[in-house]
Design a protein that fits this description.
heterodimer; A: 509 residues; alpha+beta; Dipeptide-binding Protein, domain 1; Dipeptide-binding Protein, domain 3; eleven-stranded mixed sheet; four-stranded antiparallel sheet; 15 helices; 19 strands; 30% helix; 23% strand; disordered N terminus; B: 305 residues; mainly alpha; MetI-like fold; flat
């Protein structure tokens, strides 16, 4: 009797489990104008003023507007702000459109911009976006459609990253509070937030009243799929339309697929190995650093590990950034020269060189494999190179307190399209991530930051980059080419800044 | 029985307290969440502000005291990643995990017990050999590999089932098989072994001699006596599903609590990890207690004083 009862109970549990929780996300009738986008992780909040991680901000960029936007080539274009200019050495003026409305009908005004900046600046808010607006001292609003960013000192770069700060409905926010906004956002963007089941799906519908004109795709579903192989499988079965972070080994399969196509974009992210010149060791010798740069065959590395999806770099900057100087040559692969430099440094045939190459695992595309390949190439100089791979969270702690030594792998990308962020964060003595110190370089970077004349500024950066190239505090590697894949029914071009704007997509036919 | 249950509940409470202390200390020894949570270009001042806002600049014992006091009041703090209460974030993912675990264990039990019984009754037959081979393969296959293979075969090639996400019976099939197969193989092997033992005992020979019908002999006389080890293993398997779900939920994009935990560990999101580990400990202890209570129901000779 008891057996039967138990069996029935288990059976009932199975039936309940098997049939429960069924969800219909989008009406079947709308299926032809729906796109599904699969990133590796779900967004973490709908509060657009807190986090900076790309999978989260990618969703926010479709819900909220920004003052300016970058086009695909990295050129700044008007957006909610129709114009921007410096009206005084420390004042940047933005003129806003008059026809921008939040989804609830509230007009977007200068007060909303001021509110967003002040929320981010408030230390009690604990926003990660603080560094973006660090140069903005305060915001003035002379009228409802004029915003003034006031800086403490004149800055060469437009203040406050106005292409990254999302504009929120200050009236709605004050009425409902932070916690409510984190789940029920109110934006003015191309898409209206509909629903969000965490780690499952986030649904948004085209905003019919968008000032830029209704976007061609009616509905968008963000469906996170953590595992890369499963993301690829979901694309092949048509369960999703776009997948991000496609591992290089899938590129042939996806580009030759019946229903899939590969999308790629030259990334703003560079990958490199830095020498920790602040810690004792042979890496403090410039000749050793230069020798290692000559020992690396970057094109061969990119071909072997990334299937050719990368572009060699001679300096820390991607080629489309302000400050880049194409005249600075690459360290061309030359093993004989590398060995000669090592001998000059006191390490003939690499004897006496026993160094560790540190790298994270799973943070950047093929990070571990690249470290292993670089170690193999460096070993050809006769030096003993050991690879040490660590999980990212452990690794980044050591990078942040500069304890990782003597050589460590890191990637760097930002959408400022300007040299300032990279050089300040990674090469100036006081920066948390810099393991190189040179007062001359510090002065150049600071001078360039406050030099308003673009030509003079470019000249300073050219000089700074030449110095960095000569001093070789990095093993210069390459700019990534980001890989995405989509279904063939979609017309879309990937962007180098890793952003996904659904209003830039349409369906075939 | 009541006194026994109270004694066990008090013991269980100590287990949960022990787990809470251990996870708190280990987490705080594994690294600073500021380095992971804040953008790399943050200044030392911004990092210090983050630590101060979250209370990470206070002595560890004080942090634990605050955590313990708040936890007793049901407040495990806000997730560092999501900025929302950690307990709420964890609890809203429990139904999906329970759905998957129930389906997996039900599938395992419904297949394994009849197959195990049949294999034992028809010892050395083709069926028995197949069951043993299946049991060996089922326990040797890594969950990760199995999940990907099922996706490729039944999702991509045959197109029978969706490969990712939640949404009804079809979505449940592949993750449930992936999660349940190991348990299925284990329970099947144990059922077979347990039944073989019983089938050779004297009381069964007597029953057979008395003319008891074969079906009644197996289900009523043999199975009843074979239940105890089987139920024990099922209890342990339900517990181990919690850890195996980490892989299954990640592969199949299943929005459960295990996936939340994995991401939280990567991010050093202390409040989430703490609440998930404590919930897992509570479930494990509760399942163990339930199994012990079931013993008494299954075997009249067992009585708790």
């Amino acid at each position: 009797m008891f057996n039967r009862r138990l069996t029935m109970l288990v059976l009932a549990a199975f039936i309940i489990a098997a049939t429960g929780g069924s969800v219909t996300l989008v009406p079947a009738a709308a299926a032809d104008t729906t796109v599904t986008i699969s990133q590796g992780v779900d967004p973490v909040t709908m509060d657009p003023l807190k986090r900076t991680i790309t999978p989260t901000t990618n969703v926010h960029y479709n819900l909220f507007d920004t003052l300016l936007r970058h086009d695909r080539d990295g050129k700044l274009i008007p957006w909610v702000a129709t114009s921007w200019k410096r009206i005084a050495p420390t004042v940047w003026e933005f003129k806003l459109r008059h026809d921008v409305k939040f989804w609830n009908g509230d007009p977007l005004t200068s007060a909303d911009v001021k509110f967003a900046i002040e929320k981010i600046k408030d230390p009690a808010e604990g926003s990660e976006q603080g560094p973006r607006i660090a140069t903005v001292d305060h915001v003035d609003t002379p009228d409802a459609y004029t915003v003034h960013y006031v800086t403490a000192k004149p800055t060469a770069m437009i203040a406050g990253y106005p292409w990254e700060v999302f504009i929120v409905d200050s009236k709605y926010w004050k009425e409902h509070g932070d916690a409510y906004q984190a789940e029920h956002p109110m934006g003015s963007g191309a898409y209206i937030f509909k629903s969000w089941r965490k780690d499952e799906s986030l649904v948004m519908d085209a905003n019919p009243g968008w000032w830029h004109g209704r976007a061609p795709i009616d509905h968008a579903i963000w469906k996170p799929i953590p595992e890369a192989a499963a993301r690829v499988a979901a694309l092949r079965t048509g369960e999703t339309d776009i997948i991000t972070n496609v591992p290089a080994q899938y590129q042939i399969q996806l580009s030759g697929g019946r229903s899939t196509q590969l999308e790629s974009a030259r990334s703003v992210r560079v990958l490199f190995f830095a020498f920790n010149t602040l810690k004792p060791g042979p890496q403090q010798n410039r000749l050793v650093r230069q020798a290692f740069n000559y020992a690396i065959d970057v094109p061969a590395l990119v071909k072997a590990v990334l299937g050719g999806r990368g572009y060699e770099t001679a300096t820390p900057l991607p080629s489309n950034f302000f400050g880049y100087d194409a005249k600075i040559p690459f360290y061309k692969h030359d093993l004989a020269k590398a060995k000669a430099l090592l001998a000059q440094a006191g390490y003939p045939d690499g004897k006496g060189l026993d160094m560790v190459l540190n790298a994270p695992s799973g943070r950047y595309n093929k990070d571990k494999e690249i470290a292993e390949a670089v170690a193999g190439q460096l070993s050809q100089t006769g030096a003993k190179i050991t690879v040490k791979i660590q999980e990212w969270t452990q690794y980044v702690n050591q990078v942040s307190n500069r304890s990782v030594t003597p050589i460590y792998e890191l990637g760097w990308g930002n959408d400022s399209y300007d040299a300032d962020n990279t050089l300040t964060s990674l090469f100036t003595a006081s920066a948390r991530l810099s393991t190189y110190s040179n007062p001359d370089l510090d002065k150049m970077v600071t001078d360039a930051r406050y030099e308003i004349d673009p030509q003079r500024r470019q000249a300073i950066y050219s000089k700074a980059l030449a110095l960095i190239h000569e001093e070789a505090p990095w093993l210069f590697l390459f700019e990534y080419e980001d890989l995405y894949a989509s279904t063939k029914r979609l017309v879309w071009q990937a962007r180098g800044d890793e952003l996904i704007y659904i209003d830039e997509m349409k369906l075939n036919g | 029985m009541t006194a026994y249950l109270i004694r066990r509940a008090i013991g269980a409470l100590w287990v949960v307290v022990g787990v809470a202390v251990t996870v708190f200390v280990i987490l705080h020894l594994t690294g600073d969440p500021a380095a992971v949570m804040m953008p790399l270009e943050s200044t030392p001042q911004e990092i210090a502000q983050f630590r101060h806002n979250r209370g990470f600049d206070r002595p560890l014992w004080l942090q634990f005291g605050t955590f313990a006091w708040s936890a007793l009041h049901g407040d495990f703090g806000d997730s560092l990643r999501h900025g929302e209460p950690a307990l709420g974030l964890a609890l809203e993912r429990v139904p999906a995990s329970v759905e998957l675990a129930l389906a997996a264990i039900s599938l395992a039990v419904l297949v394994a017990i009849p197959a195990g019984i049949l294999a034992a009754v028809r010892r050395n037959s083709l069926l028995d050999i197949l069951a043993r081979v299946f049991s060996l393969i089922g326990q040797s296959m890594p969950v990760y590999w199995l999940g990907i293979m099922l996706i490729l075969l039944f999702g991509v090639q045959l197109g029978w089932f969706p490969v990712s996400g939640i949404g009804g019976l079809k979505h449940l099939v592949l993750p449930a098989i992936t999660l349940g197969l190991f348990s299925m193989a284990k329970v099947m092997r144990l059922t077979r072994a347990s039944m073989l033992d019983i089938l050779q005992s004297d009381f069964l020979r007597t029953a057979r001699a008395k003319g008891v019908l074969p079906l009644r002999l197996i289900l009523h006389h043999a199975l009843r006596n074979a239940w105890l080890p089987i139920v024990t293993v099922i209890g342990v398997e339900i517990g181990s599903l919690i850890s195996q779900a980490i892989i299954t939920e990640t592969i199949f994009g299943w929005p459960g609590i295990a996936r939340l935990a994995v991401q939280a560990i990567y991010d050093r999101d202390y409040p989430i990890v703490e609440v998930v580990v404590i919930l897992a400990a509570v479930s494990f202890v509760a399942i163990n207690l339930l199994v012990d209570v079931l013993y008494a129901a299954l075997d009249p000779r067992i009585r708790y004083e």
